[in-house]
Each structure stands twice: as structure tokens, then as C-alpha cells.
UniProtKB/TrEMBL annotation:
This is Putative MORC family CW-type zinc finger protein 2B-like.
Length: 129
């Protein structure tokens, strides 16, 4: 009986890891998130290094993707998640986190989105392909 309850609103896990990622910008925590459909075991911390317009990224629409959803540790992180995604949406920008194995592009949410998750396109480093 110690099993966790089944969440019917959660997308099914299909191929890929589920892991927690601490999303940061300028050494400040935005929000702890859960990464769904990850291509590999994720680093525990993603530091956003840049925020740019989507048109500045080559072939963004053709890249594979995973998802981030908030797994906030407190109300401050929950608020920061909403502010962060609201900023990306309002300004139509993409947040970039460059890690050793891949480059991640956090896409602006669609209009009318409730910010329940973010689509993250990624490009693997050439040494892994």
C-alpha cells in the first residue's frame, strides 16, 4: 500500500527518463522542475545562459523535445515559474541552457497557456551524435 497514487492528468511515461531539474538564471533559483521524456539522465541544475528570439536559432522547429513542469518546493518558486514563462510568452523569447551534453531551448508557451508545462527543444552536442 506504499505505492504513490496514479495521477491520471499526468502524461504517460514513454521512452525517456523522468528527473528533477533546478532551473536557475543569474545564480538565482527560478523553480525546481520535473523533466519528462528526457533523452538521457539530466544534470540536476540548468543555468539559463541566454534569452533570445526564436528566429535566431537554426532549425528550432525540427529539433526533438522534452517537457518541464513545475515541481516547486515553495510558493516563491511557483510564482517565479509563472513570471518566467509569462516573460517568455509576452516577449516571444526562448531561454537557452547550455550543458555539457546538449543545448536546451525553453520555448515560449502558447497564448492562453496556464503554464502547467514548458516545451524544451534540445540539440545534442556533436561528440554524442
Amino acid at each position: 500500500m506504499g505505492d504513490l497514487p496514479l495521477n491520471l492528468n499526468e502524461p504517460p511515461k514513454q521512452d525517456g527518463f523522468e528527473s528533477y531539474v533546478l532551473l536557475m538564471k543569474d545564480r538565482k533559483t527560478i523553480c525546481r522542475t520535473q523533466c519528462l521524456k528526457a533523452p538521457f539522465e539530466m544534470p540536476l541544475v540548468w543555468n539559463i545562459s541566454d534569452i533570445v528570439r526564436p528566429k535566431t536559432i537554426d532549425s528550432l522547429s525540427g529539433l526533438p523535445h522534452c517537457f518541464l513542469r513545475p515541481a516547486s518546493e515553495n510558493s516563491t518558486q511557483q510564482r517565479e515559474w509563472g513570471l518566467f514563462l509569462g516573460f517568455l510568452q509576452k516577449s516571444n523569447k526562448v531561454a537557452i541552457a547550455k550543458l555539457e551534453l546538449a543545448e536546451f531551448f525553453i520555448l515560449p508557451p502558447d497564448e492562453g497557456s496556464k503554464f502547467s508545462r514548458a516545451v524544451v527543444s534540445y540539440r545534442m552536442e556533436k561528440t554524442l551524435q
